[in-house]
């Protein structure tokens, strides 16, 4: 019986490309000639495309384990969008996704993970926990956790690169007294237990950048929860500690934190965009009402979720054995809180 690998060899492309083209994946970018070659190869080999789509509907389901609690996920637009991307892509590819766990669930009750076609893990789950999950299911796709060393598929936004790029813009505009306000990294172990660390990607990039540019004496960072309330509290702490030498620029780890930063600065009549410039991450809808407008790094969380599902399907289909790492670019959306001079 003719299989997808036969079509791939005939068309001189990868099995993954054949699968995505034949299943009308609109996110794949291939030339018209390549697309035509794939369909011609399928026709020459009498490969039944319609039967292939029917088989796709009968694939084993995908499980999802999120390091983010259900309550936090509801409040965080990034994770809501990521979850939407997972669910929409699974629906589009006609694959089940009805086993979804959060860290609020007891990991000891996570049973029969080996019965799933693949497993998507979202967030900073500790290395031993990843190893434990791999022992149960080899088709593992890890989202937003680039620091693990295991050979698994990974998808994440390139936050460290963009952090460095923003800090370089600050330096170019003459800012050397740069503070960072962010949140702690929460790691989850195989028992669902939480540990708090400072090994968070944006903070790590900030510290490396400041040291590499011989600005060690200007390093000042404030960490808490990833919430508006925490942002306001941390900014008040910054203003009290550095009132004799206020930073001229603040990098903020997320937009929810930035909402609180705005409140604290404006209560002290500090003019944002003039006295202190600000850049944040996420570019969520909630910042639309801020005045002056907040410069923020846009992250396509939905696309990250969609890619994770596609990688899972490739594993289920046995289209490849080697792991793939997808790094999603980010984009700086410039508004009045920081407008770099050209």
Automatic annotation (TrEMBL):
Keyword Transit peptide applies: no
Presence of keyword Electron transport: no
Residue span, HTH lacI-type domain: 2-61
SUPFAM superfamilies found in the cross-reference section: lambda repressor-like DNA-binding domains, Periplasmic binding protein-like I
Molecular-function annotations in GO: DNA-binding transcription factor activity; transcription cis-regulatory region binding
Family annotation (Gene3D superfamilies): 3.40.50.2300, lambda repressor-like DNA-binding domains (1.10.260.40)
InterPro entries membership: HTH_LacI, LacI/GalR-like_sensor, Lambda_DNA-bd_dom_sf, Peripla_BP_I
Keyword tags: DNA-binding, Transcription, Transcription regulation
A Pfam short name: Peripla_BP_3
PANTHER family: HTH-TYPE TRANSCRIPTIONAL REGULATOR EBGR, LACI-RELATED TRANSCRIPTIONAL REPRESSOR
Official protein name in the record: HTH lacI-type domain-containing protein
Organism: Enterococcus villorum
Lineage: Bacteria, Bacillati, Bacillota, Bacilli, Lactobacillales
